[in-house]
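Lab manual, section 2.4: Encoding a predicted structure.

Procedure: take the sequence of the chain (265 residues), apply the prediction step described in section 2.3, and record the output as structure tokens. A sample record is shown.
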Amino acid sequence: MNPPSKTNVKRILVAVDTSPRSLAPLEMAVNLAARMQAQLETLFIEDMNLLNLAGLPFAKELDRTSGEARALNAPNITYALQNQAQRLRQLLQTFSEQKQIKTNLRVVRGNYFTEAMHAKADILFMLTSKRVSVTTPGQPAKSGSVSMRFWNAAPVYVYYTGGSESERPLSLASDLAEILGTEVMVLLPANNEKTITALKKRARKILGGKSPIRYEIIDTDLATTAKKIAASGCSLLVLPKYDTRSKLHEIQALESIHCPVVLVA
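Recorded output:
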């Protein structure tokens, strides 16, 4: 069993949609909520773009089993969304029993990024890469612990500026790396040796040697940083949340990264 985290977190939120890939951050959030004894809220976002597309006469969907193309209509999409929400409720109930945590499912309709970024939580898990799908998650397991089948040994990346707003993300990244059994890759936006040395010293003090640490010097622009991370691969990217209204375009710039993003308030 993992030791409790020193990071004071009361509410963890994970934003999911119709993509099966949403189960990856959901399972990670479940394990983190159990470790931190925090409440887990799942925000299921019904994508308005998908529903609007279903209203067009030429819209088609391809059956993955038969390969047959059929009309994509609003009643079928609505039924699929309702079915997926019910499956998520069953899955959360199983997780709640296994991990002894409080869980809640909230269903909203709108844009994935907008709804996720404006939700209130201490920690937000979300996907940034392409998410178009209407398949439903499989039946929850009857017994046993939450699996980590979606995860690999790639590093947990964390953006650290040395400011107070990036201390919690750094500490959380260490907790997540321990859960995943991997290392922390600290991204340092610096352009001279003196600043780099100072940032590394502060980071080591905060982490206290809990997890293996590596460092990478990056540009301050998130879009440029995203390309580097996408090329090397990651398990998670941990960032300070900042002001969602001014930073939403930067979060959307992370779409090239095929790993969940964790935003820390």
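Check your result against the sample. The helical segments are 23-36, 48-54, 74-99, 112-117, 167-180, 193-207, 222-232, 244-252.
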